[in-house]
Amino acid sequence: MYPTPSPQRVVARPPPDSTPGRSVAAPATWALIALNVIVFAGQLRVGGLHGLQDMSEAVLLAFGANHAGATLYEGRFETLLSSCFVHGSLMHIAFNLLALRQVGPFVERAVGASRMLPMYLLSGVVGSVASTFSGWISGGQHISVGASGAICGLIGAGAVLGYRIEGRGSPVLRQMGGWLVSLLVMGLAVTFLFHAIAGHGGGFDNAAHAGGAAAGAVTASVWRRGNMHAAPVRAAIIGLCGALLVATAIRVYRFDLNDPFATFTVDDRVVYAARALDQGRCDDARMALDSLERLTLRAPEVTMVEQTYKARCFR
């Protein structure tokens, strides 16, 4: 468990109710927890209860998972944020929300919701950008989901706050720094082992964790101690964050409606194109091939289906 320093040591004027563990002391944290739970409930509603153990990729993509190829080549930049509220299993969301409940209230009570909330969202986006870049470098079908990048931002911010308040001997710095290092080391170890045994990374998105932590730490380092936003400014910042989340959700929904391949992985699109060709549906096959070429221009499976398309549809 992480110690919760007294807010009096962080800000000049502590909030009127700063009792550790009280939901009223950290409304933004609880709102984030609630939003993650609502999204996960929606995933289960669409994908079925088997998603408690392993959510299908189609459901993840439908709710805004960050697919590196789609983000870069189909302009799915909204998924850099939406993916931070999508989870792959009950264990995945439970671990993340436990960490959010542990770290979020300390950061929120220390600097206020109007600083903590934008930092959380920014850390999530930066983590997703790092994950996307990692997926692009590896050339694989990289799908990233989860709040862990944003939560690592909270941990990074908490470590910086501990250092700024109490110096190198801060117990908060030691605890949060230790947690962050442990998470990154464990992620690297699991990735190495899974690559050696199964040929994939085992579900740890180390790039997102590192990117989120760096964003949170940098943001916390520029906060001015004791300088609180006026009430209208706090309301405006929180309102803008809410509007950004609503706009992101609308963008994901509209893309799902307008793009027939929004929930398809590369393999799904290859299978669809091949079946369309077998059934003589050249127009449908062409649509699938166009979507494939945007994601994997030189992939051998795309070239093979393209050759079949030319042979069957241009006779």
Walk me through what this model shows.
The chain has 315 residues and is mostly helical. The chain folds into two domains: 252 residues, Rhomboid-like fold, CATH 1.20.1540; 48 residues, no CATH class. Helices cover 69% and strands 1% of the residues. It contains 13 helices and two strands; from the N terminus they run H-H-E-H-H-H-H-E-H-H-H-H-H-H-H. A two-stranded antiparallel sheet has the order 1-2. Helix 5 crosses helix 6 and helix 12 runs antiparallel to helix 13. The radius of gyration is 22 Å and the shape is elongated.
What's the structural blueprint in terms of helices and strands?
Layout: H1 27-47, H2 57-62, E1 66-67, H3 68-73, H4 79-82, H5 90-111, H6 113-138, E2 143-144, H7 148-166, H8 171-197, H9 206-221, H10 231-258, H11 266-278, H12 282-295, H13 300-313
Antiparallel strand pairs: 1-2
Helix pairs in contact: 1-5, 5-6, 5-7, 6-7, 6-9, 6-10, 7-8, 7-9, 8-9, 11-12, 11-13, 12-13
Which class best fits the helix and strand makeup?
mainly alpha
Q: Please give the share of residues in helix.
A: 55-70%
Helix segment count? 13
Judging by the overall fold, what is the CATH architecture of the largest domain? Up-down Bundle
Spatial strand arrangement across the major sheet: 1-2
CATH class of the largest domain: Mainly Alpha
| DSSP strand tally | 2
Uncertain segments are 1-24
CATH superfamily of the largest domain: Rhomboid-like
Shape: elongated
- Give the count of structural domains: 2
How far apart, in Å, are the first and last alpha carbons? 69 Å
Average the pLDDT over all residues and give the rounded result: 82
What is the CA-based Rg, rounded?
22 Å
% residues in beta strands: under 5%
How would you spell out the order of helices and strands? HHEHHHHEHHHHHHH
Task: Report on the biggest sheet.
Answer: 2 strands, antiparallel
- CATH topology grouping of the largest domain: Rhomboid-like fold
